[in-house]
Fold this protein.
Amino acid sequence: MNFELTQEQQLIQQIARDFGKEQMEPYAVEIDRDSRYPAEAIKAMAELDFLGVFYPAKYGGVGADFISYILMLEEISRSCASTAAIVATHCILAAYPIFKWGSEAQKEKYLPAMCKGEKLGGFAFAEPGAAPASGLDKVVAILDGNDYVLNGKKYFVYNGGTADVYIVFALAQKDPAAGLEGMSAFIIDAATPGLFVSRHIPKMGLCGMPTTEMVFENARIPKKNLLGTEDQGYKILLHTQACASVSAAAQAVGISQTALDASVKYAKERVQFGGPIANLQAIQWMLAEMAANVHMARVATYQAAYLIMEGKPFTVEAAIARMFTAKAGVDVCNAAVQIHGGYGYGREMILERLFRDVKGTIIFESINEYPQKIIAENLLR
């Protein structure tokens, strides 16, 4: 695998980096503090074609490769992780299942508007109080003529209340004990009668990305909005989660790079014991370990992205990238706070936000232990 970026990839990377510094970095503190949805930034990113960067031109996309998307997401994460999380939800958790499993009619109806930013995508999988498809409030889809009737609740819906279209997983099998294996995926418009947001859920980090609880009360979904077939829901979920793991890894790399850059700058400027703390061996070793973590996290992420781009099996590599970047990201941000001392703990600097945000990328689309399960099953089969 060649890690030398093409001219197109470098151009997309540079445009994303410049955009982040100029149009997002100045507002990142405000977005985090006020839990404000960055509408202006999302609109500007749509105008730059970031929301459809790796989708084919026939569906309104740019037609670039998956690595270009990962580079873009990493650069955006360096400036504002909340905005990157919104984009990742839209591109991978919402648009990608339609592109991968949707009918031609579904692709033509939804993807052009999503790639152009005319419709924002959301993702609804988790449910309150229990594992999906098992609790009292599980979302159940019952076929009634040409419609599915959905009832139940979804918890921690990504881009909830802001998205125009959602990918929703619901139990559609007649066997109530089918659990996850009985789930189906649906494309659901936000304006569907019987679908409403019951409350917004505040978070520790990634505060600018809206997360909500969503309620279905006899919401009628046309049968043609079923994604794939009824028996494909769990397969769609697992594949989508694997792609989302690479997105989450890219976000963690971007956040970690910002923490490293800030720590190097601070170590050169902070004078203590008669000189910059960068002269202290303890600080140098901490910086070296941070740099190694960022480097290896980036390599693991790019490798998984390369496999996706080439159409090769990538599930295990995606899990490895996500597992490693989860630990590396927390370690890097923790060390950055330590190097900055009391200043790092205070909210006047960005380190505490980076620490909260990197934790959010770890639990972004599934529990933290999800990648370990995937890796172990592959080793022991």
About this structure: The first helix runs from residue 7 to 24. The chain has three domains: 7-120, 122-230, 234-380. Residues 278 and 284 are 6 Å apart (CA to CA). The chain has a mean pLDDT of 93.
